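Design request, tokens follow.
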């Protein structure tokens, strides 16, 4: 969850910018800021998550010793899930910044429900691995729904979400 620090900092900065652009009816600027910020958060978060996933055993050994080595798989799964969620937080914050926090609240409630049900089903059979899987899948579900809502509101497409022009525009925005 430390991966979320980057997205928390970014959303703190961009939310007022998106709200200000909303007042000025500059939807393209809102979209560019949000997508570019999500891309930057994605690069940083996934980069860190890959490092954690690749070196999970070494990290656990260093921090907690041999007793926690069987936590490597849950750590790897959660690292990727948390990185995905970090990107989704940018989209959720952007949706809230344009006056629709109710939508992000519904997504969060749905993801929470999915997570609880997933944990109830998977923990008895798979223990911590099952808990990590249920949590990571609920993160991906929440992010997917927030992206769908974002795309609908801003008229963007999945192609827009991966276009490097938005990252460049967001970095230039004052």
């Amino acid at each position: 969850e430390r991966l979320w620090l980057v997205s928390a900092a970014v959303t703190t900065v961009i939310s007022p910018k998106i709200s200000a652009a909303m007042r000025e009816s500059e939807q393209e600027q809102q979209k560019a800021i949000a997508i570019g910020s999500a891309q930057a958060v994605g690069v940083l978060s996934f980069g860190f998550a890959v490092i954690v996933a690749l070196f999970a055993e070494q990290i656990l050994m260093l921090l907690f010793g041999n007793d926690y080595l069987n936590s490597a798989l849950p750590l790897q799964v959660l690292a990727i899930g948390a990185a995905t969620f970090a990107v989704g937080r940018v989209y959720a914050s952007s949706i809230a910044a344009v006056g629709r926090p109710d939508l992000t609240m519904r997504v969060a409630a749905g993801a929470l429900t999915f997570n609880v049900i997933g944990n109830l089903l998977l923990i008895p059979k798979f223990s911590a691995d099952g808990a990590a899987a249920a949590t990571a899948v609920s993160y991906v579900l929440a992010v997917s729904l927030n992206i769908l809502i974002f795309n609908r509101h801003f008229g963007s497409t999945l192609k827009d979400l991966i276009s490097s022009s938005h990252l460049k525009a967001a970095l230039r925005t004052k």
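Comment from the thread starter after seeing the answer: thanks! DSSP finds seven helices and no strands in the chain.
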